[in-house]
Write a structure and sequence with these properties.
Number of strands: 6
Oligomer: single chain
Shape: globular
Helix content: 10-25%
Number of helices: 2
CATH class: Mainly Beta
CATH superfamily: predicted glycosyltransferase like domains
CATH topology: Thrombin, subunit H
Radius of gyration: 16 Å
Number of domains: 1
Structural class: alpha+beta
């Protein structure tokens, strides 16, 4: 199972999204909240298990986007997805927030060593 780690708050949105599975349109969904790293999609009768790789097709900020993502959780009303790559342009453009990026890997371990040292 994949661990979801959020480094930026989710903000409410209302955005039409097409879910593509294996390169084909699978379901229409409604984006309900957005972070720099992911989105919650409201969709009925979803059959995508956690860990499924998908693509998201959306139109916003004056252009079309095709984003790779993975399903991180699902419930009766929809799915949470994590983008394969952070999407600061979409996040900032739709929420007017500056995304907070995660610290580089290993950074926390180095700080711990220095604090103990």
């Amino acid at each position: 199972m994949m661990a979801e780690r959020r480094y930026s708050a989710r903000h409410p949105i209302d955005l039409k999204v097409q879910i593509l599975y294996r390169g084909r349109r699978f379901l229409g969904a409604q984006g309900r909240n957005l972070s720099n790293q992911g989105m919650y999609l409201e969709v009925r009768n979803v059959t995508l298990p956690t860990g499924t790789l998908i693509e998201l097709e959306l139109e916003c900020l004056g252009r079309e986007w095709l984003l790779e993502a993975v399903v991180t959780h699902r419930c009766r009303s929809g799915v949470g997805v994590m983008f394969r790559e952070p999407q600061p342009k979409i996040y900032q453009g739709l929420t007017h927030q500056v995304p907070v990026m995660p610290p580089p890997q290993g950074m926390n371990k180095e700080r711990t060593r220095l604090a103990r040292g």
